Amino acid sequence: MAGQTPTTNRALWLHSFSSPPSIINLTIPEATAGSVVIKVLSTVIVPYTEDIHKGRLPIFNLSLPLVPHPSHIGRVHAVGSDSVSLRPADLVYFSAFITARDNEDLFVIQGHHGGEDPRAKKLMNGEWRNGSLQQFQKIPLENAFVLNSERLCDCLGYTPADLHEISFYAIGIGAISEAAHVRAGETVLIGPATGTFGGISTEIALALGANVIAIGRSKSKLERLCELLGNHERLRTVVMTGNTEADTAAIRAATTGGRGVDVYNDWASGGLEGSPFFAAAIRAVKRRGRVVLSGGPTGTIDVPYAFVMHQDISITGKLGVTRDGIKLTISMVESGILLLGTRGGASHSLYSLDDHEAAIHAAKESGGFKVYHDIMPNTW
User: Fold this and answer.
1) For residue range 201-241, what is the model confidence (pLDDT) as tens digits?
2) Three-class DSSP category at 23
3) pLDDT at 186 > cutoff 80
4) Quick check: keyword Metal-binding in the entry (predicted)?
5) Which of 13, 52, 74, 270 has most Cβ atoms within 10 angstroms of its Cβ?
6) Residue 245, C-beta contacts closer than 8 angstroms, at least 6 positions apart
């Protein structure tokens, strides 16, 4: 009934990597000082969710049991005593990157990543344990970003599912803007560019005025990427063959005068060991160029020491995005520079918490850039 105070918090509970998660009832969290409780409206299920739930991606370093999954779009349910801006019913984007308040070098991704340092386990095992696949989630106050509901929903017609694309674009901003410092007119090489984050980063780089070369093994997927981005005049593609010398030559041939690229952004996926394109791609980087590693593979990569030194190339790792990067992303969405949902050519298939198995399976089978599968713990 409208206006009725909820009494239970239905949640997806991941208690073991050897058995599937199940629906349980938790208590609704209390909004204490420094926190806010959000009524979760929508979160996108990523294609590798099943692999996380089955423990196939140990890089995520999860401590069980917990409610899994990271960011979401929701409405404020209750605020802590020190909140000065957030109000109940505010529409918000929740960024799940949690940094220890007394040590900025320690972080977790709430419900998704247990951090790299043993001390970070205190965050994952304590206050900020449970993720977004529940009806009500307690999050740090500073991780809730208020959205302009009138502009985004009433004017542009976006739904919570559409708005959760902000989480992907923010990661792209972290790599392309914050780490690579891409400027208008530069040439950016992105690969693999046919996955969710590679595609997002391609779109971000184009939006910032760069020329982009997208690389991948599949010609048809690269052609589909071009279609989704409106066959942009500043976007070119190169089909990779696995022959390092030939692939480097093909990349350079796609640049102005064959001079190479200013930036290479690597998005090797979590199921790989090392990067399949790194060896060829880095040799196409110009003198004083930048390389940003932002994928999730295990293993190592071979760096051509003398080449990198002689060419004065910088290599940077980037995970996530800062608060300023998130604000920039939201601003680009609100201004219409970045288009979401059907405006941007994306599709969303919606599922309830009870249909989580179907959502996870569908995301694994067909999820990707601009093809999204969303779980909605509460109705919009």
Assistant:
1) 999 999 999 999 999 999 999 999 999 999 999 999 999 99
2) strand
3) yes
4) yes
5) 74
6) 280
